[in-house]
Automatic annotation (TrEMBL):
Residues in Aminotransferase class I/classII large domain copies: 3-161
Pfam families associated with the record: Aminotran_1_2
Species this protein is from: Oikopleura dioica
Official protein name in the record: Oidioi.mRNA.OKI2018_I69.chr1.g1775.t1.cds
Matches recorded under Gene3D superfamilies: Aspartate Aminotransferase, domain 1
Amino acid sequence: MTFNDSPFVSFCQVAKRIPVMHVGGLAKGFLVPGRLTTGIKKLATRLVGPNKLIQAAIPKILSIPVSWHNEQNTKLEEAADLFYDGIMQAPGLIPIMPSGAMYMMVKIDFSRLENFSDDMHFCQTLVSEKSVFVLPGSCFGFPNFFRVVIRSPRKKFQKLVNESSTFATIM
């Protein structure tokens, strides 16, 4: 799953000296929400193999046409473009365009946003003042960034872009 004409590169192609097995998952390939995967994991840990719910769903899941995946990929690419273009207008925020992820990393330039001490402070203030929830990059080993999921409905996504840009502009 890539977009912007980016080629897919498997870890199997990159890791030459160690064996790597590439596997896919339902959560990313079929857009299974996190809260559902958490429930499924709880069920799966009680069993040695996949739970009955997943076993019963697999034939239906695997019969989803490629056109559906292409449509989802197009929506994801459009969302990435929309967010990137919108956040580029905000002073002090520098988005990193993804090539196929369901999220985007945005660098926070604290020399232009001096009211914040770090990415955690920025994210906490954004959620408390604008009700926009993003994850601090330090959670992922990327301080001075924040991570935003770009798989939201278009109306909500436009609000996210507007609120984030406005927030950065007035701060």
